[in-house]
Amino acid sequence: MFEKQIRIPSAEEILSEKPLPESLKQIKSARDALAKDVIAGRSDKLLVVVGPCSAHESKPVLEYVRRLGKLNEKVKDKLVLVPRIYTNKPRTKGVGYKGMFSQPDPENKENILRGIQTIRELHMHAIEESGLSAADEMLYPENYAYVEDVLTYIAVGARSSENQMHRLVSSGIDLPVGIKNPMSGSVPVLLNSIFAAQSKQVFKYHDFQVQTGGNEYAHAVLRGMVDSYGNDIPNFHYETVMQVFDGYCKSGGELQNPAIIVDANHSNSGKRFYQQIRIIEEVMQNRLYDKDFKKIIKGFMIESFLVEGNQKHDVVFGQSITDPCLGWEDTERLILDIAEKA
C-alpha cells in the first residue's frame, strides 16, 4: 500500500524554478573539464573527492567548502579538489536517517520537496563561495535529474554497482562516474559495471524512452570489501590495484580510460577514520615504484569534516552525524602532503 503524501514536481519544473545562474554554470563547466581530464589521462593531476560522510546541515558544509576553496588555491597545480556534498545516505538495514534529500532537518520527518530545494540552494552557494562544484552519490537514479546541473562528480555505491538502473543512468552522464566495487569485492563484476556504463543504452527514464551515448568517464573506485562473516577486507593494496589494471588491459580496448580512485575509508579503513592518512600514504608510495600503478591511480575519496569523529545528534557544529570523519587540520595536512608527492 502506498499513501500519497506530497506531490513532487518534475525535475524540469524544479530546475526552471531555480536555475543555476550563468556565472556558476561557467565555473562548473571549467571544473567538469578538469575532472574529466584527470580520468581520461589528459592531465597528470590527482582528483580528490573530500568532505563529510553526509551533508546533514548547510551552514557547516558551506564553512567546510569555503576552507576547501582556499586550500585549492595552494594545490591546484597538482590536485583537482571536489567537495563531497553527499545528500543521500544508504542504510545497511534500510531504516534511519537517509540524508538531506529525504530529511532536510535530520531531527524532523521526511520532506522530500523541501529537501530538493535545500540541496539546490546548498550547491549554488557552495559554488559561489568556493569556486568548487561538488560530488554526490547517485543512490536513487531517478533523483539524479534534480541535481544534474550542479554536480561535477557522481559516485555509485557498493550496494548499487550491480544494479541495472544505476548502470544505465550512468551511461547517459557526461561527467566522471566512479563505480565502487561491490561489497563482495569482485573485480569482474566491477569491470562489467564499468563496461555497461560506458556503453550506449536504451531504456525508460522518467516519462520517456531514452537513448544514451555511453559514458567514457565511468571508472573504478576501490572501497574495500566485506567477507561472508561481515569482516572488512581492504583492497587498496598493490596487488588488487594491479588486478584491476590487468582487467582493463585484457578488455582489449573495450574499456576506455583505465582509472582507479581509492576510497580511503569504508572497508579499506574499517571506518577507522584516522587510518585514511596511512592508506593514502601507502598508495602514494606505491606510485613511486610502478609506472602502471601510477598511471591507473587517479586520486582518492576522503571522509572529512570540520571536527573529527561523529555524534548521534547535531550538537557539535561541523561534526558528522553518520560515519566518523577526519577533522579539518588533519585533512589540510593530508591534502598538502598528497600535492607535494603528486
Verbal overview:
The protein has helices at 11-17, 22-40, 58-75, 112-130, 164-170, 187-198, 238-250, 275-286, 291-296, 328-341, and strands at residues 46-51, 79-83, 134-137, 151-156, 177-180, 202-205, 208-211, 218-222, 225-226, 232-233, 260-263, 297-303, 307-310, 319-320. The protein has 342 residues and is of the alpha/beta class. The protein has one domain: Aldolase class I (TIM Barrel, Alpha-Beta Barrel). The strands form four sheets. Strands 2-1-12-11-8-5-4-3 form an eight-stranded parallel β-sheet. It is globular, with a radius of gyration of 19 Å. The N and C termini lie far apart (54 Å).
Keywords:
TIM Barrel; 17% strand; 10 helices; alpha/beta; eight-stranded parallel β-sheet; single chain; 37% helix; 342 residues
Mean pLDDT: 96
- Would you count the extended β strands for me? 14
Query: Structural class, from secondary structure content?
Result: alpha/beta
Q: Label the overall shape.
A: globular
Q: In angstroms, what is the radius of gyration?
A: 19 Å
| Secondary-structure element series | HHEHEHEEHEHEEEEEHEHHEEEH
What is the total number of structural domains?
Answer: 1
Q: Give the fraction of residues assigned to helices.
A: 25-40%
Which CATH class applies here?
Answer: Alpha Beta
Quote the distance from N terminus to C terminus.
54 Å
CATH architecture: Alpha-Beta Barrel
User: Order of strands across the widest beta sheet?
Assistant: 2-1-12-11-8-5-4-3
**Biggest sheet details:** 8 strands, parallel
Strand content: 15-25%
Number of helices: 10
Indicate the low-confidence ranges by residue numbers.
none
The CATH topology assignment is TIM Barrel
Fourth-tier CATH superfamily name: Aldolase class I
